[in-house]
Design brief:
Helices cover about 55% and strands about 15% of the residues. The longest helix is centred in the C-terminal third of the chain and has 21 residues. The mean pLDDT is about 95. It is elongated. By secondary structure, the chain is an alpha/beta fold. Helix 7 packs across helix 12 and helix 8 packs across helix 9. Strand 5, helix 5 and strand 6 form a beta-alpha-beta unit. The protein has twelve helices and eight strands. The structure holds nicotinamide-adenine-dinucleotide. Nicotinamide-adenine-dinucleotide binds next to helix 1.
Amino acid sequence: MTDKTIAFIGAGNMATSIMGGLIEHGWPKDRIFASCRTEESARKRSDELGIHTSTSNLKAAAKAAIVVLAVKPQMMRSVLTELAPALQKQKPFIISVAAGIRLKSLDDWSGGGLPIVRSMPNTPSLLHCGATGLFANTRVNDALKATANEIFEPIGILQWLEREEQVDTITALSGSGPAYFFLFMEAMTEAGVKLGLDHETAERFSLQTALGAANMAVQSDVDAAELRRRVTSPGGTTEQALKTFRQEGFEEVVYKAVKAAKDRGAELA
Ligand code: NAD
């Protein structure tokens, strides 16, 4: 795609992290537009990032070849309906980051017929170690997919999905997933405290262990199951803990939790 003019509708956390990634990777700042709710936030964003900002969604989107929809899901219908006549004239490439809003709704609300990608990034994108699942409608060609890659690669890993329903699984897995790992860290900390450590020490060691294990799993040539086997000596302490997890149905609980998140996503859509 040659025209790199990109507009972010809504300039909150997710939009800001994507814009930050784009700028770091050399996207021309004067080709980035964003809409903000107030004059104050518009000024702040423009000072921080050196981009064009406006308090009008229509103005921000006016010349864009790519429009990234980054308002909260409940705002999406009204925002898109307002933009629809302009979008129908301009025919930009639309990318939504909104959780749970289906392509069919995005297509309907934007007036129909536009190339649209529905994406699902997650919170660690703010630190540029996110995970984004993407699904495109049939109007998105390879060149537009390459543009979407350019937009999301700076904030983490990405994967194109084969079916839209998989976006809901990604939402339940990596979208909500950081909270599952936070819960595990909390529970580990609590266990350490119950077993004799002060809270600060227990927390520090739980978090560092999570970080170390995640780094090992990401960097290793072997999968997590093999890494687990390698640190589990027969008859040792780790084996005893893992046996207890299994006996108490740990895997089943994780499956049920992820499925519950996916089912809830379907109810909300
Ligand atoms: P946020 O509240 O930080 O950002 C939303 C922004 O939209 C705010 O700056 C708000 O002022 C602005 N806004 C509200 N109404 C508007 C309007 N009518 N016109 C223009 N701007 C308006 O929220 P966020 O976390 O950045 O989430 C934005 C989108 O990203 C959501 O749809 C969410 O589902 C999606 N998302 C976020 C995350 C995450 O980790 N934060 C992960 C996946 C998807």
